């Protein structure tokens, strides 16, 4: 499996995945890092880790078609057959979702289907978890479908919410778990162990 990681920000999840792959802990290669933001920290990390990277910003294209066709050419030229979104703050076009059907994952810093959907990103997620008085939060890896944050769930891990947590302290605890769970989830796909039926993903035993 040869994956592209799409990220818009700092890229700590991208780095965790690239390191796990480079250290031989995953049966996949990271062939490309794609950002929609030329200033994103993830591009520096990709450079340092010697992974191909590109910025592709829809605002620099005349039409959605020319943007999509340029994105598809990059993915094809780099032999990409799977996409991992990691802090990618741009909506994924239906055309991309169709081309990579059940082959695009996302990471969400809470336990979906709670605290997901429109407006739940970054610090806002952790603020909402604290406001609701939850005693646990966590991380969800899910497949990307056209319904935002509602694609089949692949894996989840919980973290405790502590009495004196701030959104920042909770985010930091969650992020640590993100770095563990995302490489593990991608390995499930690399091993062909994810089967999706009627919006439910099942993990089958290793053969
Ligand atoms: C993570 O918290 C991820 O769950 C969310 O965006 C953040 C990205 O962090 N979708 P990083 O850029 O990987 O450090």
Largest sheet: 7 strands, mixed
Mean pLDDT: 97
Q: How would you write the strand order of the largest sheet? A: 3-2-1-4-5-6-7
Based on secondary structure, the structural category is: alpha/beta
Bound molecules: 5-O-phosphono-beta-D-ribofuranosylamine
State the helicity in percent bands: 25-40%
Task: Report Rg.
Answer: 17 Å
Choose one word for the global shape.
globular
Word description of this protein:
The chain has 207 residues and is of the alpha/beta class. The protein is built from 6 helices and 9 strands. The strands form 2 sheets. It has a 7-stranded mixed sheet, with helices on one face. Strands 8-9 form a two-stranded antiparallel sheet. Helix 1 (12-22) runs parallel beside helix 6 and helix 5 packs across helix 6 (167-190). The longest helix is centred in the C-terminal third of the chain and has 24 residues, at 167-190. 35% of the residues are buried. The structure holds 5-O-phosphono-beta-D-ribofuranosylamine. 5-O-phosphono-beta-D-ribofuranosylamine binds next to helix 1, strand 5 and helix 6.
List keywords for this structure.
23% strand, seven-stranded mixed sheet, single chain, globular, binds 5-O-phosphono-beta-D-ribofuranosylamine, two-stranded antiparallel sheet, alpha/beta, 207 residues, 9 strands
